[in-house]
Design a protein that fits this description.
- By secondary structure, the chain is of the alpha/beta class.
- It is 46% helix and 15% strand.
- The protein has nine helices and six strands.
- It has a six-stranded parallel sheet with strand order 2-1-3-4-5-6, with helices on both faces.
- Helix 2 packs across helix 3 and helix 4 packs across helix 6.
- The longest helix has 27 residues.
- It is globular and about 50 Å long.
Length: 232
């Protein structure tokens, strides 16, 4: 009997298990998957500690966007526990000043009780295939489930994240770097940068896709993750 790889999936800002549902269904034959809870902490260090406390001793790790930031923090805290790493639609860079200002404005809206107004703005930034109502509805439902209070904690953690670029060269496990070609939130060049600095990293760029490939182009993501899980 083939042993399944423990695979920890970390969602992005305002996302939950639904982000990874296509992978949970398609990869069940090769991976024992769990989705981390990134809603309770307001720092990257805290999120990483919470994830590690609930994780098996050794695991494969895949994170999208904010989940990628947490994955890079896990590589600082406990690299010996990560068998392989996948970074999807994320960045190793810290926030730019204008990004921090934008996050602060969104936090202010949430604190004013106007969190529902935040959702359509973010969905339009994240989803390339806005002509696919099921994708838009799935993302919108995730944001509502996560809610305003967790959104504030998550944005606070994202704003305070460190520059992860100095640590990329120390990553020595099989690594996949994947992004949507039309990702406006974390563009392709950020992924080329990460892949260039991680020895042996494989770069996959998914066409006709925005910031959420697991939902927008699940077949491409499933194929890339399956190949990554089989890498020796």
């Amino acid at each position: 009997m083939t042993t399944k790889t423990p695979l920890l999936l970390l969602p992005g800002l305002l996302c939950d298990r639904a982000l990874w549902e296509p992978q949970l269904a398609a990869l069940a034959d090769v991976a024992d998957m769990t989705v981390g809870d990134l809603t309770r902490d307001d720092s990257m260090a805290g999120m990483a500690r919470s994830v590690l406390a609930a994780a098996p001793p050794r695991f494969a790790l895949a994170g999208l966007s904010m989940g990628g930031y947490v994955s890079l923090e896990i590589m600082r805290q406990a690299p010996e526990r990560v068998e392989r790493l996948a970074l999807l639609d994320t960045s190793a860079r810290p926030d730019r000043p204008e990004q921090t200002r934008d996050r602060q404005e969104l936090i202010a809206l949430a604190k004013q009780g106007r969190f529902k107004g935040v959702t359509p703005m973010l969905v339009s930034r994240w989803v390339h295939r806005m002509d696919q109502p099921q994708i838009v509805e799935t993302v919108t439902a995730m944001t509502r489930r996560v809610g305003g209070e967790a959104f504030i904690r998550q944005q606070t953690a994202i704003m305070g994240r460190p520059d992860s670029r100095p640590g990329l060269a120390r990553i020595n496990c099989p690594t996949l770097v994947l992004c949507g070609r039309e990702d406006a939130a974390t563009p392709v060049e950020l992924h080329r940068e990460m892949a260039a600095d991680i020895a042996g990293a494989r770069l996959v760029i998914v066409p006709e896709c925005g910031h959420l490939p697991p939902l927008e182009r699940p077949e491409a993501v499933n194929d890339a993750l399956r190949r990554w899980l089989a890498t020796g």
